[in-house]
Design a protein that fits this description.
Blueprint: E1 19-23, E2 29-32, H1 51-54, E3 68-70, H2 78-81, E4 86-90, E5 97-102, E6 106-107, E7 113-114, E8 117-121, E9 125-129
Antiparallel strand pairs: 1-2, 1-9, 3-8, 4-5, 5-8, 6-7
């Protein structure tokens, strides 16, 4: 019981709910913006960026060129909770695969390494912008 409790808590994050990340299939909340870990694309014009990424993903602000977002480990990540070193991330409600995790790190499409990495693919989720959190009840 309590499947709703498996998702992230939207209230109690101290504000900063600029957006939420929803499963594209079932619309369950997977993360909120305060749980997203920022990373900076490496400077230097992308000389180490693979050729296939250079033209299609220019380094844009706010991870605009990144194909994924990286979040902190969350309770709904079942394989992480079981102690696996790496594996797939699936929606806690509909079990659709939404990403991948690796405690050793994953290289983002902007060529930056993120370690540890809990990667959610933007193509598998909807990022919905919201007004600042007012759920302080």
């Amino acid at each position: 019981s309590g499947r709703e409790a498996a998702g992230p808590s939207i209230s109690g994050n101290g504000g900063g709910c600029d957006y939420v990340i929803l499963c594209r299939k079932c619309r369950s909340v997977l993360a909120v913006s305060s749980q997203v870990l920022p990373h900076e694309p490496p400077s230097g014009g992308g000389q180490r960026m693979p050729r296939k990424w250079r033209g299609s993903n220019p380094a844009a602000g706010a991870h605009g060129g990144c194909s994924s977002v990286y979040v902190e480990p969350l309770k709904w990540m079942e394989e992480v909770e079981r102690g696996a070193n790496e594996g797939k991330l699936s929606c806690y409600k509909c079990k659709t695969r939404v990403g991948h995790f690796s405690w050793s790190g994953i290289q983002c499409s902007c060529s930056q390494w993120v370690t540890p990495a809990f990667q959610i693919h933007k193509s598998k989720v909807d990022i919905v912008r919201e007004a600042p959190c007012s759920a302080q009840e």
